[in-house]
Design brief:
Elements: E1 12-15, E2 28-31, H1 37-106
Antiparallel strand pairs: 1-2
Length: about 110
């Protein structure tokens, strides 16, 4: 028999002869005829190309993840830097106020 569904189109198989009559024993086996040298070369090239593409995709995906993480960390560090500047400014203001108060007390 021959399969005509999209994923196994034109692929050969053996199946129970009673399948058509609703009394199948469940027997099923794919039959893949031997491939010629050219077919094997073509399939090997396709598989290698697929593996390279898949590997490139994984690398790009990993790189994108790392870039996103770096951007988040950079933004967080910038916020910490701004917070430190605000704290220094606040500290300077308080120190100045304390100096003024100390000067007034000594007068």
């Amino acid at each position: 028999m021959t399969a005509y569904i999209e994923v196994n189109f034109d692929r050969r198989f053996f199946g129970c002869v009673n399948y058509k009559f609703g009394r199948s024993c469940g027997f099923f086996m794919w039959f893949d005829p031997p491939m010629c040298v050219h077919e094997r070369r073509v399939l090997t090239r396709i598989q290698e190309r697929h593996e390279r593409t898949h590997t490139e995709f994984e690398i790009e995906s990993h790189l994108k993840t790392k870039e996103d993480e770096y951007a988040k960390r950079t933004a967080r560090m910038e916020e910490y830097g701004k917070h430190i500047v605000r704290m220094k400014e606040e500290y300077a203001k308080r120190s100045e106020m304390m100096e003024r108060n100390m000067t007034r007390l000594h007068l």
